[in-house]
Specification:
Elements (H helix, E strand, L loop, with lengths): L29 H14 L3 H11 L9 H10 L27 H17 L3 H14 L6 H16 L14 H5 L2 H16 L2 H10 L17 H10 L3 H29 L5 H10 L4 H14 L7 H21 L4 H17 L7 H10 L5 H11 L5 H29 L1
Helix pairs in contact: 1-2, 2-4, 3-5, 4-6, 6-8, 10-11, 11-13, 13-14, 13-15, 14-16, 15-17, 17-18
C-alpha cells in the first residue's frame, strides 16, 4: 500500500556504537586544564574569587570526568606525573596550594575553597579523597615546604570531616616510612588537626575507621615501639597524641592478655603467678587493671548454669579454685576495691548472679582475697549505683558482723594495754 511507511534500509555486518562521551577529544584534559589555569591566573591569590570561579565553572566544565586534573591543578598548579612531579607538556599556574604562603591561616582559607567546591558538587567527594590518598603517596616528590602545606591542609580537612581518616593508610607506604617522611608529615598533620579540634575528636575519627591501633606503622618495624612513638611525638610537641597511642597500646595489651588467660582457664592449664606478674609489667598495667582482667577471664572461662539456684553453688566452687590467683593480685587496698566493684557490676549485668553477690564476697573474705576494710569502705561509700539497694541489703548482716568483730577486737586490745 502507498500509505504504508517505506522500510528504511539497514546495514549488514558489525556495527560500532559510538557515544558522544567516548569520542577521543573527551579524554583529552588539555582544554579542561587550560580553562582552569586561565581562571586561576585571573583570580590570583583572592581565594574567595577562586571559590566563585570554581562554583560557576562546574556548570560549563566536566568536573566529574576530570576531577583528578582539577585537584592536581588546585594543589600543585598543573597535572602531576607518577611520583609527584609536574607534567612538562601541560599548562601550569602559579596560583595553587603549593605556591601559597606556608601558614595555618592560608591553609584554612584553602580548606574553605575545597569545602565549598565539594558541597556544591557532591559527586567530587570520593574523587577528592582519592586525590589526597594519591598526594600522600607522592610525598617524596614534593619539597619540604610543599609537604608542610599539604600536611596542614589535610589536618584541617580531617577536622572538618571533608575527608575520612582512612586516607592515613597511604602514610604506611614502606618507602615513605623507611625514610622518615611519614612520621615527619604526621607531626604537621596532627598539629593542624588538634589545633582545629581536640584529641578526643581526633581519637573518635581514628577509631571510626580502625586507624587508632595502626599509628605505630608510621615507623619502621625496628622502631615500632610505644617508647619510640611517645618520645618522637612528645619531642615534637604532641604529648596528647603520645598519651593516646600509649593508652591504645595498653587497651590492646589488656585484650590480648584477657583472651590468652581465658583460653588457658578454659583448657584447665595451670597459671603461674610469676609469669602473670611479668605480663602485667610488660604491658605497663597497674594491679587494679590486672585484677579486673583476671576476674573477667575467670568468669568468662566457664559455661554458667541458667538456673539461679544452681549458679551460686557453681560460682563458689569455680572461684574457690582461683582464689589464690585473685589473692596474688590484691596486695593493695585499691585492688581489693576494684575487684569488689567488678563483682558488683558482674552480678548486676548477669541477672542469674543477683542473689550470689553476698556469697561470693564472703568466700573471698574467708580466702583472704578481700579485707574487712575494703568491704566496709565499699559498703559505706565506694559502691556503684548498679543494683545498689539489692546488694547493700544482701551485705547488711555480714557488715554488722564485721563491725562487731572489729569492736570486740579493739576492746580486747584496750584491755591488754
Amino acid at each position: 500500500m502507498n500509505n504504508q511507511k517505506q522500510q528504511k534500509p539497514t546495514l549488514t555486518g558489525q556495527r560500532f556504537k559510538t557515544r558522544k562521551r567516548d569520542e577521543k577529544e573527551r579524554f583529552d584534559p588539555t582544554q579542561f586544564q587550560e580553562s582552569i589555569v586561565q581562571g586561576l591566573n585571573q583570580t590570583g591569590t583572592d581565594l574567595e574569587a577562586v571559590a566563585k570561579f570554581l562554583d560557576a565553572s562546574g556548570a560549563k566544565l566536566d568536573y566529574r570526568r576530570y576531577a583528578e586534573t582539577l585537584f592536581d591543578i588546585l594543589v600543585a598548579g598543573g597535572m602531576l606525573a607518577p611520583g609527584g612531579t609536574l607534567s612538562d607538556d601541560m599548562t601550569r599556574t602559579e596560583y595553587c596550594l603549593f605556591t601559597a604562603q606556608e601558614d595555618l591561616e592560608t591553609m584554612q582559607a584553602y580548606a574553605q575553597v575545597f569545602n565549598k567546591l565539594i558541597r556544591r558538587y557532591k559527586y567530587l567527594e570520593k574523587g577528592f579523597e582519592e586525590e589526597i590518598k594519591k598526594l600522600l603517596l607522592f610525598l617524596k616528590g614534593f619539597t619540604e615546604s610543599e609537604r608542610n602545606k599539604l600536611a596542614m591542609l589535610t589536618g584541617i580537612l580531617l577536622a572538618n570531616g571533608s575527608i575520612s581518616a582512612s586516607i592515613l593508610s597511604s602514610l604506611f607506604n614502606e618507602n615513605l616510612v623507611k625514610e622518615g617522611v611519614s612520621a615527619a608529615f604526621a607531626v604537621k598533620l596532627f598539629k593542624s588537626w588538634i589545633n582545629e579540634k581536640d584529641i578526643n575528636s581526633v581519637a573518635a575519627s581514628l577509631r571510626k575507621v580502625g586507624m587508632d591501633n595502626r599509628l605505630m606503622e608510621l615507623f619502621p618495624a625496628n622502631k615500632r615501639s610505644c617508647e619510640h612513638f611517645s618520645k618522637y611525638f612528645t619531642d615534637a610537641g604532641l604529648k596528647e597524641l603520645s598519651d593516646f597511642a600509649r593508652n591504645q597500646q595498653s587497651i590492646g595489651a589488656r585484650k590480648e592478655l584477657q583472651k590468652e588467660l581465658q583460653e588457658q582457664m578454659s583448657r584447665g592449664d595451670p597459671l603461674k603467678e610469676v609469669r602473670l606478674q611479668e605480663e602485667m609489667k610488660k604491658a605497663n598495667l597497674s594491679e587494679q587493671a590486672m585484677i579486673g582482667i583476671i576476674w573477667t577471664s575467670v568468669m568468662s572461662s566457664v559455661e554458667w548454669n541458667k538456673k539461679e539456684e544452681l549458679v551460686t553453688e557453681q560460682a563458689i566452687k569455680h572461684l574457690k579454685q582461683y582464689s589464690p590467683l585473685l589473692k596474688a593480685f590484691t596486695s593493695q587496698g585499691l585492688s581489693e576495691l576494684s575487684l569488689l566493684l567488678k563483682i558488683q557490676e558482674y552480678c548486676y549485668d548477669n541477672i542469674h548472679f543477683m542473689k550470689a553477690f553476698q556469697k561470693i564476697v564472703v568466700l573471698l573474705y574467708k580466702a583472704d582475697v578481700l579485707s574487712e576494710e575494703a568491704i566496709l569502705k565499699w559498703y559505706t561509700e565506694a559502691h556503684l549505683a548498679k543494683g545498689k539497694s539489692v546488694f547493700l541489703e544482701q551485705m547488711k548482716k555480714f557488715v554488722e558482723w564485721l563491725k562487731n568483730a572489729e569492736e570486740e577486737s579493739e576492746s580486747e586490745e584496750e584491755e591488754a594495754d
